[in-house]
Amino acid sequence: MTAPADPPQDRGPDGPAAAPGQEAFRQAVGQFVTGITVVATATGGVTHAMTVSSFTSVSLDPLLILVCVDRAARLHDAVISAGTWAVSILSEEHEPTARWLATKGRPLDTSLNGHPHHPGPVTGHPILDDALASLECRTYAVHPGGDHTILVGQVLSVTGPGSGDVPGPLLYHAGRYRRLPAR
């Protein structure tokens, strides 16, 4: 894969157009509704977990997903070095957990403290109890992505969704957690 060429300089009636700013970009992409996940791993006896909204499926053959992890996040180096990790897809009931794990600077030793979880059946990495679904992954590829790393995972196990009355997913839109209307 080669790097894209520099984009052509757009010209407005008064000369070159200004590049979009980070805030304008953030507001624009915030209009795209995303689901919420938690990515977790354990290394050296320490659990690392973080709320992640940049999650998507990539391939059915092989089974691949991707997440984007901020390079400045504590989870970043831990998940890269571990080589395996778990993804919990959150229900609307997990909003307090999502908020806590999105808090920058929270105490490391309390990563999942008070947030019920269990070890994944293949990797042993933490999976949140009552997640809508969960995936355990082995790192398949790592790509630079600006201030984030694009982490592609090969899926080793899939759990859920359960049968019966399943709660709605936790969503994120325009800087706020959201829920689907009652069914």
Describe the model:
By secondary structure, the protein is mainly beta. It has a domain at 38-162: Pnp Oxidase, Chain A. The protein contains three helices and 14 strands. The protein has helices at residues 22-29, 74-82, 95-101; strands at residues 11-12, 15-16, 34-35, 37-43, 46-52, 55-60, 63-70, 84-89, 117-119, 126-128, 133-145, 148-159, 171-173, 176-178. It has a seven-stranded antiparallel β-sheet. β13 and β14 (176-178) form a beta hairpin. The longest helix has 9 residues, at 74-82. 26% of the residues are buried. The mean pLDDT is 87.
Short structural description:
This protein has 183 residues and is mainly β. The protein contains 3 helices and 14 strands.
Keywords:
single chain; 183 residues; mainly beta; Pnp Oxidase, Chain A; seven-stranded antiparallel sheet; three-stranded antiparallel sheet; 13% helix; globular
